[in-house]
Amino acid sequence: MIIPPPPGRPAAPLDLELVQVTKRFGSFVANDRVSLKIPSGTFHALIGENGAGKSTLVKCIMGFHTADEGDVIIGGHSRDIRSPADAYQFGIGMVYQHFTLVPAMTVAENLVLSRPDLPATIPWEAERKRLNAFMRTAPFQVDLDQPASQLAAGQKQKVEILKQLYLESRFLILDEPTSVLTPGEADEVLGLIRRKVEAGELSVLLISHKFREVFGFCNSVTVLRRGKVTGGGLVKDLTTDDLAAMMMGGPRTPRTVAKADRAPGAVALELKGLRADKDSGVPALEGLDLCLREGEVVGVAGVSGNGQRELVEVLAGQRPATGGEVLVHGEWYGATRTDAARHGVFLLPEEPLRNGCVPAMSVAENIAFREFDRPPIRLAGCLVSRRGIRGFAQGLISRFGVKTRSTETPIGDLSGGNVQRAVLARELGPGTAKVLIAANPCFGLDFAAVESIHGQITEARNRGVAVLLVSEDLDELLSLSDRLLVMSHGAIVHETTPAQADVKVIGHHMAGH
Q1: Could you read off the pLDDT of 382-398 as tens digits, one per residue?
Q2: CATH code of the domain in which 301 resides
Q3: Tell me: the pLDDT tens digits for 209-223?
Q4: What's the number of domains the chain is made of?
Q5: Among 69, 70, 110, 255, which residue has the fewest nearby CB atoms (within 10 Å)?
Q6: Angstrom distances, CA of residue 62 to CA of 23, 78, 88, 257, 435
């Protein structure tokens, strides 16, 4: 018997069980008879490669999708969850990977706005008393009167979690909650949530790509692969190799590319006093100085919003500099298409479908963007050879391991990892790159895609390409970089090498301390 939502929300942490949950989209089976059990008051991880079915599964729990088969069981009863409002009534809340705060509103207004039962006229005096009482026991302290637009990324993530605690959610789904946090903030946030779990106040389902988080904070784990459960169990009984094998469908055989033992070459990219503004006109880069040499990877760490995006956009020609200069091999660089071709400056952008590709155009056409106006693709005038485009792309698709039905498949139909591989093929394939700017190249990608892209970046470095790696993933930076810079408030505030790096010191500088 399916039990409808209760009239009042639960006061105790929930147990949740999925039994043979199947969700189809046409002929595609996103979840195939998925079963898992999360006892009350436990911290459970859900992991798997991109496309494994994690997002679809939690959307079935939250009521965004209705499962075609199977049951969602809460408190021992099969429940009918047809909308997020139903999930709310059952005491289930979700913290999404991307922020949902209203920038112009204060923290207090965002917390109150999150209530589904919000009256037409808000009794602010009563709400303020309720908020003050809540904040006295909240795990994070944030200024209630601060506009969300003025919060750092770490504070915004804390407010997103506070929203669910303010709503008195007893089962919390966290979707990659640490992707914008410093290492210290990540440990703080997950540690405080873990304490609430241990205190018997919450049950938590964590979606993560980071084994460190699974082993550091979770009691148990479920692994999905191609929509099916391939394993799991108590975290204390498993190893990273066990989880990797479950995710990959066999023992992990990582593709590693060793860094060539070489001294950096001549200066390839130099920034002198570079200045640029944010979209709002507020300064984003405050006289940035940076030097990058041939055959080295210089990593730039920092919490989102400290000028990294504006730096990449200036180098890509997508944002004007307001001061300073950019030099490539000692010559002034204006970041035009002509300049980029002449100096060999190439770009691996963040969110390439939004910022580096035309989703509706074919894989072959997107790979040919750098070469379409040159022979043999260009024939005469504005004429281009379709056969030339396909032939040029086919070799790179094979060489870079891009998985696509054909060269004519719209690139928007590919997985995130394969889109990124296609862009890497376009930027590095012709072999003319002298400088590569890579911006969060593996954000949101799965285990296999990350290994592939890291390998390509290291191979480029070994060939003498100068790589500027801007990333919010400190593990990625420590793995790939020869030198590591920390950026805060539009300036370089710390420099180290991976061998000498102190993660706590880096975290403090990232946080602006």
Answers
A1: 677 788 888 888 888 98
A2: 3.40.50.300
A3: 778 889 999 999 999
A4: 2
A5: 255
A6: 14, 14, 8, 41, 45
